[in-house]
Amino acid sequence: MTETRLITDMAFVRLWTSNTASGLATWALPFVLGLLIVGGGLSAAHAGLALAARTVGFVLAMPVGGVLADRSGPRRMIFGAGLLAALGIGPIISGLAGFGGLAAILAGAAIAGFGQGACRASYQAIVPRIVADAQRQPANAAMTISIRVSVLAGPMVATAAALQFGAMATLLGIAALWTLAALLPTWPPRGEGTISEPLTLPRFIAELGEGFEEARRHPWFMAGLAALTVVIAFGYSVTSVLLPQISEAHFGGPKLLAASVTAYTVGALFGALIIARWKPRDIGWLALASLSLYGLVPLSLLFPGHLVVPLTAFFIAGVGIEFFNVPWFTALQREIPEKRLARVSSVDFLFPMGWPHWLWPGLRR
Prior knowledge:
This protein is mainly α. Helices cover 78% and strands 0% of the residues.
């Protein structure tokens, strides 16, 4: 497969489009809930509970999705999880319409979050099944670009749709995006990647343990995961709490908050475009060094009055996170056996996602 073939290969194009649709749906929902607060259709407390329920569903789904994807194949997991996320929008609409109330909204948010989390590792595990080894680095860069675009476009599309058609219609649009994400990827040959043995609770625990054991077999994975978790726990989380306060104190509103999300995302897009083609000799050390660039962000907040300082730091950090992400995902797909890749990928997502950087969804891997 040549480098130009990647953008014309329909299997990858369909997967990329599915990943983009799921990303748009993921980042659109919080903004629709925010608009409902502004419009008086939902209280801030109830919206916060709904987002918390979605996060709980996401975290709980990660190990389940990893096991099921390795058993039945990541394509089937994307299908099932995407449809589950779409179905979760139904109870939210029902609760907002007065049928089921807050309980229905929370149940729907948890179901949508579960579907979102269950398919996340599958998007990583399916890439080596449709992309040749030589093209996996640019393929992973393209996949992460789709998510970065979704982070920017999702809120804008959701806001425009809600203002034009209303929140309920926009929620239906989010369900349609999840359905599209479920249906788009190419199906593998019949029977590929399936395990006939029934999945009992002891079997599930055993297979989950196999995933953790596979992760521990690779010292580079454990070291990289530890570094990533430290950055998120002591970087992202602190920034998520302090940045809104600093933005309000120095700019009287969300100016710094919005600008920093944009700078970080633009930096990540720039970094992904570079690393898609650049293959340095010591790419592992480059990845870890690039991850450490996020340390510039909290330092820049010491000078919040000079807007260019934090924005530059966020841009550099965005470049750095993709210099880490793309080689990291490529190494996982190369070093981890295909039959355990989804479970190890779920470990990769689960530990960093366990920290409360969900307070500000603009900052993500």
